[in-house]
Amino acid sequence: MLASVPMRLLPADQNGCLRGDTVETAIKADLAKGLIPCYLVATHGTTATCAFDKLEEIGPVCQRYDIWLHLDAAYAGVAMICPELRQHMPGIHHADSIVTNLHKWLLVNFDCTAMWFKSCRDIVEAFTVERIYLSHKPKSEAPDLRNWQIPLGRRFRALKIWFTLRTYGLTGLQQHIRNHISLAQEFEQLILADPRFELATPTCMGLVCFRAKGDNKLSSAILEELNKRKKVYLIPGKLGDSVFIRFVLTSPTTTTE
User: Sites of the modification N6-(pyridoxal phosphate)lysine (predicted)?
Assistant: First the structure.
């Protein structure tokens, strides 16, 4: 909650995706109550299952009602450096702002987040604070980044991004992403070949969601035992009433072996 503005959670479809009709129904309901919908956060690769909200449906709805559309692409956003993966991004041009965490999957150490705005002017006009104790001379032609955010300063994260880009280059970073997707597909085949397990959701990017056939207790017990062995660290997920195990690749040292 920011500035005492309440937040409303919207239901996803059976695949974990937010749809345009759901958004429009919620907007109309809020307007009928005298509320003013002004901001919507869609997700590009949800935490639990790496599902993608339908931006091609949501975007036009937000435009009709003059609502700021923010895209949370914390995990999957960096994968868009690979042209073949941009099929997951229809409608992204509707987003007013996009955020992705470079420390999650692009080899930059924690913490490091990149954010893009369709119009930087909107942000500067909202956050600019002019006080006499903040004035300085001579004024540079460079943008004053304190006016791009709520706090007046932040840590210098740009250098580690620069070193990562210079060290790996575009080709190296693309290979890093593609290697993890290949390993995820390899792990998926191991799950499909074992009659004791099943996929909980379709494999997407570097994430494989699987579970033991049977009730949730069995999957939870297997997860606990695997983590006790300390050879791999896995965490649980839940979609509907189904509990599953999340296998996600992010480390550059992970191999088939």
Answer: 104
Q: In Å, how far from its chain's centre is CA 25?
A: 24
Question: In angstroms, how far is CA 109 from the centroid of its own chain?
Answer: 17
Helices (H) and strands (E) in the chain, counts: 6, 8
The string over 107-125, giving b where at least 16 C-beta atoms fall within 10 Å of a residue's C-beta and e elsewhere, is bbeeebebeeeeeeeebee
CATH number at residue 136: 3.40.640.10
For 221, left (φ over 0), alpha (ψ -120 to 50), or beta? alpha
Cβ atoms of residues 55 and 94 within 8 Å:
yes
Domains contained in the chain, number: 1
The tens digit of pLDDT for each residue in 79-111 reads: 999 999 988 888 999 999 999 999 999 999 998
pTM: 0.87
Q: How many residues does the chain have?
A: 257
